[in-house]
Amino acid sequence: MSLPPGFLDELRTRTSLTQVVGRKVMWDARKSNQGKGDMWSPCPFHQEKTASFHVDDRKGFYYCFGCHAKGDAISFVQETENVGFMEAIRILADEAGMQMPARDPRAQEKSDRRTLLVEVMEQAAQFFRLQLKTGAGTTARDYLDGRGLGEAARDRWEVGFAPDGWQALWDHLTAKGVEADLIIGCGLAKPSTKGGKPYDTFRNRIMFPIRDARGRCIAFGGRAMDPNDNAKYLNSPETELFDKGRSLYNHAPAREAAGRGQQLLVAEGYMDVIALGEAGFGASVAPLGTAITENQLELLWRIAPEPVIALDGDKAGLRAAMRLIDLALPLLEAGKSLRFALMPEGQDPDDVIRAKGARAVQKVLEAAIPMVDLLWQREIEGKIFDSPERKAALDKALREKIMLIRDPSIRRHYGDAIKDMRWQLFRPQRGGGGFRGKGKWNAQPKVQTDTRASMLAASHGAVEQRLREAVILAVALCTPEVLDDFEHEIERLECQDPENARLRDALLRYANSPDPRAAIEQALGPEAVEKLLRHPHVAIAPAVRRPGDVEMARLTLSEELAKLTTEHGLTVEIAEAEEDLRGVADEAVTWRLGQAAQARNRALQSRQEDSGDFDVGPNGAPIDKEERAALDALMERIGSPKKSS
């Protein structure tokens, strides 16, 4: 069967030869350069140990320097799958998501027509270029000169001018014998609704030819010279040659420059691409008047694995970046992503180059951020997270976005990155607090202590809490599988011991590492972990003696965290009661203090007397000796507690 014109071109554009060949070979990592599409492997067609089989992904051809096999994606499928030409095309079309065309007896006729349309487009491009050099193009030349685009640059970019007349191009082409339906078929003219001659699509505009990946002129972009024109920029309508969602401005030169090692940049418009190209950033492209489409994204990834989206520094540029994130997330693959570089506020790449030069643009590009960072920024921008519900809403929004990623490995890494950024945002600070948005913490008031404050509360903070902190951290370190269940509680753990605080931060940071203990030891030194696990009160904990026992770890963490919460509340109650004693102590307040102290002692009864550092309190509960001294001194000062009648 015959294939319609352009089908094979489209198939080759959508097909990555590296991916097709990669299913059959193992690439030589030392010789290959994936960024340039320059790949090497042992030949799949003959037995060899050296990597003499070469794939040039940008040109779409392979060649073996051993057996001299050569061809493209179609011939490779034919040879390796033992199928015919049309069957190979069908296999590749299925993988590329293209529907095989029905039999078309007029395929040759269409191919001939497509060739004629390309010829007409080239004639139009020459006409526009000549018009820019005439008197009619004076204003346009002055404008371009003011934008820093001199005659030599205009010639390099084939910039032209469409004169301000209804049929200037129409009359020029018809005088050369071009048929009317070809001119209209190219989108260069539109039929008159008043019965007159067709009129030119582009009038009084600076013209930029749009070429496909093979360098053929398929469309034009026109910049209006009249400031009152309804459309500042106007593209050709879609035609047999032009599909704006599958085309990029400056595609072929950018692909060639990227092959030489330049970073692929994506700007917003023609002038940005030209300015970047003239400044040395030759691997620059632009979509054509619309947001980047899925097809354009695939074209970009065929040129380079990680294009940099260089957006204007305004709200529209940022909105475009945010829309692109949602488009790209489901399409991400290993080694295939995006980075984002936002120009200074109110400027585009052309503005930056003219104001500060190429070096200023290079600095912006060097500061380009990964897509995951921009996703995070979008979800937290301008929001306040001062309640569990708001934090939960953030978690839900991020989870929904991450689930769009089809690749499980990338989805996991995105989750890890988001988790790390979330920890940075909400990590506990000494003194407590809650996140108020925009990177600021709003500290909550704490119970203040002075010479008259509770010695009992101070002793508890210095000894009891530090022991419980140590047990909690040691259990989580020995059985990191439970961290997902207790992450928020550990984040909120207000460590009184600075060493414990360092361990808590490291534990949360490296929770998703294959070996959290090894990662923490590398970050803090092995002594920090050894000191924690050697502590007598920690070493005897059953969950520490039985690392990996998830059920035991869960029970221990639940119990220890609950006790910390209870003790903290009771300690505050004691401190507040003592504040009331600053005047004359009455029996009611004294009784309140005594009851609070007894209740706190009852909360400690479940703890074993693990060492000689503990005594027994009035109710038989274990009590720290320092705590006993503090309690005795307090009671001596305020008298024995008794309930008033």
UniProtKB/TrEMBL annotation:
NCBIfam families: dnaG. RNA polymerase that catalyzes the synthesis of short RNA molecules used as primers for DNA polymerase during DNA replication. Residues 602-625 are annotated as: Disordered. The gene is dnaG. The keyword Metal-binding applies. This is DNA primase. It is an enzyme of class 2 (transferase). GO terms for biological process: DNA replication, synthesis of primer. HAMAP family: DNA_primase_DnaG. Its cofactor is Zn(2+).
